[in-house]
Amino acid sequence: MKKDNDNPVIAQGISVTPGYVTGTVKVVKTTAEANNVKAGDIMVVLTSNPAYAIGVMNASGLICERGGVLTHICIVAREMGIPCLAKVEGATELLEENTTVILDSTRGVVYGKPKGNN
């Protein structure tokens, strides 16, 4: 498994918007949670929801577990130039809330420590 700064790849997906960002994981499951995403956060969602757009506009990166490059939330991220991955299998379970990860959407990977090892 390839590493970045001694962090292993913990998730992989399809690049929607290329980029490289380090941020805090915020798993979003409701509209209210999307409203709490702040600059520096990497928003992680199970599926696209138009109501999550406000979170994307605040986030430094987006990881979408289901859906592809043409889902609404991924289109918003692409239009805003925010690093984004789609089809990241198990993202909402693999990525632990409030931990720091590196999103390298150019390569289609997320680096960090596996859940429970932080």
Walk me through what this model shows.
There is one protein chain. The protein is built from 4 helices and 9 strands; from the N terminus they run E-E-E-E-H-E-H-E-H-E-H-E-E. By secondary structure, the protein is α/β, with parallel strands linked by helices. The chain has one domain (3-111): Phosphohistidine domain (Glucose Oxidase, domain 1, 3-Layer(bba) Sandwich), CATH 3.50.30. The chain is globular.
**Ends distance:** 19 Å
Q: Helix share of residues?
A: 10-25%
Under the CATH scheme, the architecture is 3-Layer(bba) Sandwich
Sheet with most strands: 9 strands, mixed
Roughly how many Å is the radius of gyration? 12 Å
Number of helices: 4
The parts where pLDDT drops under 50 for at least 5 residues are none
Succession of helices and strands = EEEEHEHEHEHEE
User: What do we call the CATH topology?
Assistant: Glucose Oxidase, domain 1
Structural class: alpha/beta
Which CATH top level class fits?
Answer: Alpha Beta
Which percent range describes the beta-strand content? 25-35%
Number of strands: 9
Overall average pLDDT: 91
The rough form would be described as: globular
Number of domains: 1
What strand line-up does the widest sheet have? Answer: 1-2-9-8-4-5-6-7-3
Write the CATH homologous superfamily: Phosphohistidine domain
